[in-house]
Amino acid sequence: MIQKVVANVKEAAMGVSNDMTLMLGGFGLSGIPENAIAELVRLEVSGLTCISNNAGVDDFGLGLLLQKKQIKKMVSSYVGENDEFERQMLSGELNVELIPQGTLAERCRAAQAGFPAIYTPAGYGTEVAEGKETREFSGKMYVLEHAFKADFAFVKAWKGDTAGNLIFKGTARNFNPNMCGAATITVAEVEELVPAGALDPNQIHIPGIFVQRIFQGAKYEKRIEQRTVRKRA
After folding, report:
1. Residue 17: which CATH number?
2. Whole-angstrom Cα distance, residue 64 to residue 84?
3. What is the average pLDDT across 56-76?
4. Of 6, 49, 160, 177, which residue has the fewest beta carbons closer than 10 angstroms?
5. How far apart are CA 47 and CA 71, in angstroms?
6. What's the rounded Cα separation, in Å, for the pair 64 and 70?
7. First and final CA of the chain: distance in angstroms?
8. Mean pLDDT across the chain, nearest whole number?
């Protein structure tokens, strides 16, 4: 059996270098690969292109990489919670490609499945479709979108086993499954790492074939992006 378990995040991130394209799972602050992001900050790699639904917040998630000016380009869907992101985008320091959320997910999934491209109706007739091939199917117009090409995908799961099989918990499932296997190397950090065969096969969300490296993460903050509570009666 291929040895996929690495001792820590430092080993998991071996090979990451300047100017690479990285996928990072998560939605808001839910299910983000906290350990991997912290390691990228420590490595001080720069010129990165990051594919992620959003760019974290100013002092957490991908916001930490933005603070250090390590990201050259963000490929995202929602970026409204990060003041530093806004500042860098408006000043021209950061290249930004905004993509409809479903298209972002499907371009990841196309890469995972080995498809070179997909057709989607999202964005037809808007700036999103400018310069892209369009085609009619059954009377409806579609836009051709290419699958992503990434060097590393960093994902976060709840449980994993030593064979790389993964289980996600609740909303942390989000973009993480689609990014597994969508890059040359997929790194999974998990809250609990168990021996191969310990997970119920019926509960596995991602089979180990899509994961090259796996390790047990530590010190997860699991921040709440927007805490909303009702006033007491």
Report:
1. 3.40.1080.10
2. 10
3. 95
4. 6
5. 5
6. 9
7. 59
8. 95
